[in-house]
């Protein structure tokens, strides 16, 4: 089934009887060329690009729950490529370019909406830092605009510009950034992969790896053994749990990050806005709800829910920035489990076990990376060489001293 | 979350800052022949278990003691707390 304007009109006139399921629900085969562990955004994108761009066949994606039940359905849907460091920025800009063409590529409406992101400036030093960041972005082919206070006021008049402690002095804007419908991204990639013959197997939890003489032979699952020539693990949030079954310890702690949505409101916030003094970011969904979040709770957690002090902290940040949201009612809050890596940057690499590949450590920035992560992981799985933009995401960079410390916080996962 | 401080009783976790795995008490010997590899493990690698986890919390807004808190990372249930200095001393006695 192909989506098109004609199809939508035809179905509207014939009682919507011609829609079919977006993907099959196959039984697992006894073996595959490539098994991807994790049916979230990154795993599905990996399978999609393996089949579409790298000509691989006989691929399975194993998901312990239902498709997209993890962080792909729990994030705040922001896409952007406003990074500083040379190990990061080209990768995220590559991702941004894939976002811009995603709907054509998958023939699925992922509601990619390039409404721009504005990082607010509160001090002169911060303006210098953002000017440097904006220039670094341009070096990598991304777009950036440094906004004065007056230009900013025209775009977003409702901010508290004269906050006594953190007055707003301008902003760094990336006009091509924005949001995408997170579930739509998972569904689009799943459907695209399924159409190209990938088996997406849900309710199939990996319980162990079969490794002999340093080579992976397959995975033990809740639905039996599945043989594989190569296994790619993309289970951010649970990376340490899964990789410990292969005897590996990772430079990762799992932390819970909360997000919130208000009741639906009329169009209020034009793009994504981030507070530069506290940690608070906000956008408005197409349905009208204000979607926002802030810091991680800061302690190891696999609970997919956080605690009240951080909720209070996030809302205080929001109130300091735009007092008008105090009138809106909070509709829902939820938590997702993040792979917090020791330098705040991800890992896409081979492991010491032949045929076992790892993708994780996305901290709280995995959603925007979904297309490039999938493409780069597919590249690595298919060719055994890292993609050009993901060369810095090595697993051994911590031992070798090549950390990518975007925030400059050091080996401290709960500060990133 | 309420942390049962061994000296001060139940205290709100908000008064504390979090550091991480309690194994950070056991700093490797810098004079050991494999010190570089051991420090790399110590600084960067974590067990990161889903379940019972022993971890360091600092009572910053209180008596400024370091605690070793035993907590379940899946349920957030706190199972106990000891003074980190006691844990470190016991470890030193144990390794003699």
TrEMBL record, chain A:
It is an enzyme of class 1 (oxidoreductase). Its EC number is 1.5.3.24. The keyword Transmembrane does not apply. GO terms for molecular function: nucleotide binding; sarcosine oxidase activity. Its main location: cytoplasm. Keywords: Cytoplasm, FAD, Flavoprotein, FMN, Nucleotide-binding, Oxidoreductase. InterPro entries: FAD-dep_OxRdtase, FAD/NAD-bd_sf, Rhodanese-like_dom, SoxB. Its cofactor is FMN; FAD. SUPFAM superfamilies: FAD/NAD(P)-binding domain (SSF51905). GO terms for biological process: tetrahydrofolate metabolic process. One of its GO terms (cellular component) is cytoplasm. Residues 34-78 form the Rhodanese domain. It comes from the Bacteria. It is found in: Cytoplasm. Pfam families: DAO. It catalyses: sarcosine + O2 + H2O = formaldehyde + glycine + H2O2; sarcosine + (6S)-5,6,7,8-tetrahydrofolate + O2 = (6R)-5,10-methylene-5,6,7,8-tetrahydrofolate + glycine + H2O2. Belongs to the SoxB family. NCBIfam families: soxB (TIGR01373). This is Sarcosine oxidase subunit beta. It comes from Celeribacter baekdonensis. The lineage of its organism: Bacteria, Pseudomonadati, Pseudomonadota, Alphaproteobacteria, Rhodobacterales.
From TrEMBL, chain B:
GO terms for biological process: tetrahydrofolate metabolic process. InterPro entries: SoxD, SoxD_sf. Pfam families: SoxD (PF04267). One of its GO terms (molecular function) is sarcosine oxidase activity. This is Sarcosine oxidase subunit delta. It comes from Celeribacter baekdonensis.
